[in-house]
Amino acid sequence: MGRARRRQLGAVDQLPSGRWRVRLADLGTGRRVSLGSTFRTKAEAERAYADALSDQRRGAWVTPEDGRVTLREYAPEWMASRLTTRGEPLRPRVQELYDGYLRLHILPSLGDVALGRLTTAVRRWHADLVSRGPGLSTAAKCYRLLRAILNTAVEDHHLVANPCTIRGAGTESAPERPVPTIGQVYELADAIAPRYRALVLLAALGGLRRGELLALTRQDVDLLHRTVTIRVQRQEGRSGEMVIGPPKTAAGRRTLALPTELLPDLEHHLATWAEPGSLGLVFVGELGAAVRPGVLHHAWDRARRQVGLSDIHLHDLRHVAGTLAASTGAGTREIMRRLGHATQEAALRYQHATDERDRELATGIDRLVRAAREEGVTPLRPASIR
Q1: Do 260 and 226 touch, CB atoms closer than 8 A?
Q2: pLDDT-based confidence at residue 2 (cuts at 50, 70, 90)
Q3: Cα dihedral 210→214→216→221 (10° resolution)
């Protein structure tokens, strides 16, 4: 019975070299395939045959042909078919980042390794990337990208299981960025070229990203109702072309109420610098065209050095908006909506503002208690507190 079934599903035969070969039917496709290697003894071949049949029956089978596909061959296929969670193609900037991570940090070490043999190679690659690589933040991003690619490889039956199982390897622990004070924000706004003053204030008090600011048109700014609407963002591609696309996440499409303090600067800016017409860009360069990120960075760099804040990045202004929102008592969901965050993790970083405020309140209570004791007044008894 066993021998008849074995002949029906495959065979173990000896080659002229004396080694043993295993052939068996792929139960999914019916094709006859050979295992990728030969065996020294018949007993070894029999065990490999039995293991292969068992793997097929429990859904853990990868054909030798599929397992031999290398990461260098598979990664472009993954990139070409990759979509966002909203079913849209990856944004050009994200594609460029992924291309860079693959080209510089993943494929040089793992590109020529067959997908079916990545199990031990992943750990060696990650250890080397962390110890001699581009930094912990980039290492975490590369690991997450590799893990996503191999998740799809499992679905495509190139792998039995994803070998990216290193605990915490995809988690970033970037150092906390400095948050400028309101006074420093206005120093920077005063120091930068006048056509970018409103951009600095809108970034700090509204929390807009650079790409969102550069894509704003007149129709997006409603001074009467004190709102700004973020519909798209403008990014610069690798070859220098300007690309307009959706915001970073679906939550990025939003309409924000503006602080009254912003209105005079925005009104002056629209009257002085913005392009005409409802579709005219709010922020334009000296030649009247869309502001290129490099030009804006140059203006920002001059301003921050002028006021002695060279360690402040333009994106740090967005943290001002998050911290201000948290200081007013805004909850996580409210901060997420205002800043266009899709996950709570991004918004929770601003909750430290309420923690600091709570410590300030405790310090104020200390002052009141000390003052009362110095004047001989007995502090409130616990029983009187409701």
Answers
A1: yes
A2: very low
A3: 70
Residue among 233, 223, 231 nearest 259 (CA): 223
- Quick count: other Cβ atoms within 10 Å of Cβ 339? 23
Residue 380, CA distances (Å) to 21, 368, 369, 374, 386 in order: 89, 11, 9, 15, 11
Backbone angles phi, psi at 31, to 5 degrees: -75, 150
Active site residues: 209, 315, 318, 341, 350
pLDDT tens across 107-121, in order? Answer: 999 999 888 778 888
Angle at CA of residue 282, ends 279 and 283, nearest 5°: 135
pLDDT digits (tens, 9 = 90+) for 129-151: 998 878 888 999 999 999 999 99
Residue type, 206: G
Distance, in Å, from the CA atom of 378 to the CA atom of 120, rounded to the nearest integer, reads: 70
Task: Tell me the Ramachandran region of residue 19: left when phi exceeds 0, alpha when psi lies from -120 to 50, beta otherwise.
Answer: beta
Both tokens assigned to 245 = 């696309």
Q: Check: CB of residue 282 under 8 Å from CB of residue 145.
A: no
pTM for the full model?
0.63
Q: Which of 152, 142, 132, 151 lies closest to 100 in space, CA to CA? A: 142
